[in-house]
Every structure is written in structure tokens, then in C-alpha cells.
Design a protein that fits this description.
Elements: E1 4-8, H1 16-28, E2 31-32, H2 33-42, H3 48-51, H4 64-67, H5 69-85, E3 92-97, H6 103-111, H7 118-121, E4 122-127, H8 131-142, E5 151-153, E6 164-169, E7 178-185, E8 188-198, E9 204-209, E10 229-232, H9 234-249, E11 252-257, E12 260-261, E13 271-274, E14 277-279, E15 289-291, E16 294-295, H10 296-306, H11 316-325
Parallel strand pairs: 3-4, 3-6, 4-5, 6-11, 12-16
Antiparallel strand pairs: 1-9, 2-8, 7-8, 7-10, 8-9, 13-14, 13-15
Helix pairs in contact: 5-6, 9-10
The chain binds S-adenosylmethionine (SAM).
Length: 331
């Protein structure tokens, strides 16, 4: 059956990327949300992160490292503490996934400059696909008095194996998700995939493809009521499994901070943000940030599948309080 249009976008909203995506849909059919997100955020010419620095008051959104230098300083001291607990190994990779303007990494390095031996033992590795943000990161690190020489990568897989300290703030929520919707089709309740297609006027529109199959839905959620949305994050799971494998093969620790929920849950969390306001995700592809909440249980499962132990999630407030004062004594 052909997918069902459920909404359309206003005609004045066309962007260069909208035209390219519409052409691709005419050629190959509706795109899963994951393919649409990947194009919107990472298209080599028109992708959101390819073309701009979106952070800060003059951009679309702001993040914790941009609000207070203490955020990066605390995470840097956490990394230094882990390094000491690991036995202070040489050749440790201090990896940041999606480092934005490089503020967190710069604050982390500045805060840890006096930890004896730490900077001599580490190399900063910045996993970043945006050429614009790579330049911002290079400038942020170059402004430090004696920064360890950084290396950039498109993917975590490019970072050399070995002792690992990994930080990621608001990285996993930028990775593409798939969405499955429970709906009635020919008298039967089934799980359809939400895709981006075209409406009768050729504008981008949500469509439902009933061919998805409920095998994709976590068993605990298969009986959810009609209209429920389940999100899958295969790209996030692949990165988490890669981290887990690295932590199983060498000493290390990883700290991921993000918006999300603690376990399998239903809900449509795909959101577009432009100029600090929510927007329609289909309205201006390549011009708005697209994110989805992180399923921390799925992230932990992928880390464990890779071979690592995983804890959390805890709230960011509890994390920062514990980093300031140490964990609460057992009651
Ligand atoms: C929301 S910003 C967060 C920036 C920074 N961590 C902060 O807290 O300010 C997301 C970051 O991830 C990067 N990014 C998005 N998708 C990526 C991908 N697939 N691989 C590597 N970096 C990516 C973006 O370019 C950007 O630096």
C-alpha cells in the first residue's frame, strides 16, 4: 500500500535542501525519519551543521558549556580523576564527540593543566563532522596557554585504540532516529514507519508506511495503544557499542550528557529548533536543528553489548552536585 500523508508544510518554506529531498523522494520513495535527519543535519553542501555555527544567543540554541565554564571544568576534572584511578596511563585519548565550539574541551583542559602528568599523557581527539565548527574548536584550543595538540576525526572508529576518556554533551540527541507509529490498517493494529514523503502539491509531508513490521519494536512496547510512537536510534546504538568495545579492550571511562529518558518509552520527541524557538521539522530542512530525546536504557544496553559496564542515567544536577561534593554517603 502507498504511504498515507498526514501533514504538509507551507509552500513559502522551500529551502535548497527541501528541493533536493523532494527530488530524491520522487526517485526512490518516502524517506525514513533517520534518512531525512541525516540529510538535514549533515548534507555535504546544505546540511545544518555543514553550513553554520548554530550555538549561542545569535544562533538557534545554547548548551551547558556555553552557559558556564564550570561545566567543562567539572567534566575535565572528572576525566583527570578517572585517569588517576586508571593508574595514570600514558597515551590516553581524551575524546569529545560533537564538540561544538570547543568550549567544553578548552575548559576541561584549562582546569586540568595542573594535574601532574595528565596533559603530557593525553591527546585530545575531536570527533566532529562540521567544517565550520572544527574551525571554532581549533581557535578555542589554540587560545589555551600550552594545549596538547588536538586531532580531528569524522568518526570515533578513526581514534586510535588504547586508554580512553570520552565526553559527549548533546551529541547523541543529534543522531538520526527512526519512528514507528501504532495504527489501524485494514481492521488490524500494526506498527507503521513514519516517513517523509510528498503531499498532492509536492510539498514535504509526513507519511506512514505500514510495511515496517512490529519486530522492530521493543517487546515491552508492542502492546502500546493506537497512536503511540516508538523511536529507535540505530546510529546512537552503533556509537555506544563502539565505545563499549573500546572500554572492554582498554582502560577508560565515558560520560554522556543529554536530554532523554531512562527506559523504553513511547512518545514523539523529534523536534526542530530555530532561533531559540520550536519549529516544524519539515518546514525548513537544513535551516533548523533537529534532535530527538536519548533513550538511556538503549544507550546502556549498547554499551554493555560492546563489553563495558554502564551506570545511570542520573540528572545533570545530581551529576554536577556529586562532582562538587562527592557521592552522598550511604544512608
Ligand atoms: C548540539 S551540538 C553540541 C555541541 C557541544 N557538545 C556543546 O555542548 O556545546 C552537536 C554537535 O555534534 C556535532 N555532530 C552532529 N552530528 C555529528 C556526527 N554524526 N558526527 C560527529 N559530530 C556530529 C555537531 O557538529 C555539533 O558539534
Amino acid at each position: 500500500m502507498s504511504p498515507t500523508p498526514v501533514t504538509g508544510t507551507p509552500p513559502e518554506a522551500e529551502t535548497p535542501l527541501a528541493a533536493l529531498i523532494a527530488r530524491q523522494i520522487r526517485l526512490t520513495g518516502p524517506l525514513p525519519v533517520s534518512a531525512y535527519m541525516a540529510l538535514c543535519l549533515g548534507h555535504p553542501q546544505h546540511g545544518y551543521y555543514t553550513t553554520r555555527d548554530p550555538l549561542g544567543a545569535g544562533g538557534d540554541f545554547t548548551t551547558a558549556p556555553e552557559i558556564s565554564q564550570m561545566f567543562g571544568e567539572m567534566l575535565g576534572l572528572w576525566a583527570a580523576h578517572c585517569w588517576l584511578a586508571m593508574g595514570s596511563p600514558a597515551g590516553v585519548a581524551l575524546v569529545e564527540l560533537g564538540p561544538g565550539r570547543g568550549t567544553l574541551m578548552a575548559d576541561a583542559l584549562r582546569a586540568t593543566a595542573r594535574v601532574p602528568g595528565f596533559h603530557a599523557a593525553l591527546r585530545p581527539h575531536l570527533v566532529e563532522t562540521s567544517p565550520v565548527l572544527r574551525q571554532r574548536q581549533a581557535a578555542a584550543l589554540a587560545a589555551l596557554p600550552a594545549p596538547p595538540a588536538p586531532v580531528w576525526h569524522d568518526r570515533l572508529e578513526e581514534v586510535p585504540e588504547g586508554p580512553l576518556l570520552l565526553l559527549a554533551n548533546e551529541f547523541f540527541d543529534a543522531l538520526p532516529i527512526r519512528q514507528l507509529v501504532r495504527q489501524e490498517h485494514r481492521g488490524r493494529l500494526l506498527w507503521a514507519e513514519r516517513k517523509v514523503g510528498l503531499d498532492a502539491d509536492g510539498r514535504l509531508a509526513w507519511v506512514l508506511d505500514p510495511a515496517a513490521g512490529e519486530a522492530l519494536v521493543p517487546p515491552a512496547l508492542r502492546g502500546s495503544p493506537p497512536g503511540s510512537v516508538v523511536e529507535l536510534a540505530p546510529a546512537a546504538a552503533a556509537v555506544a557499542q563502539e565505545i563499549g568495545g573500546r572500554l572492554a579492550r582498554a582502560p577508560g571511562a565515558a560520560l554522556m550528557v543529554d536530554y532523554g529518558h531512562a527506559g523504553p518509552a513511547v512518545g514523539d520527541t523529534l523536534q526542530a529548533v530555530r532561533r531559540h524557538r520550536f519549529a516544524d521539522p519539515l518546514e525548513a530542512p537544513g535551516e533548523a536543528d533537529l534532535t530527538a530525546h536519548v533513550d538511556f536504557a538503549a544507550l546502556a544496553a549498547a554499551l554493555r553489548a560492546g563489553g563495558a559496564a554502564a551506570w545511570g542515567p542520573v540528572t545533570q544536577g545530581d551529576l554536577l552536585s556529586a562532582l562538587v561534593s562527592g557521592p552522598a554517603p550511604p544512608s
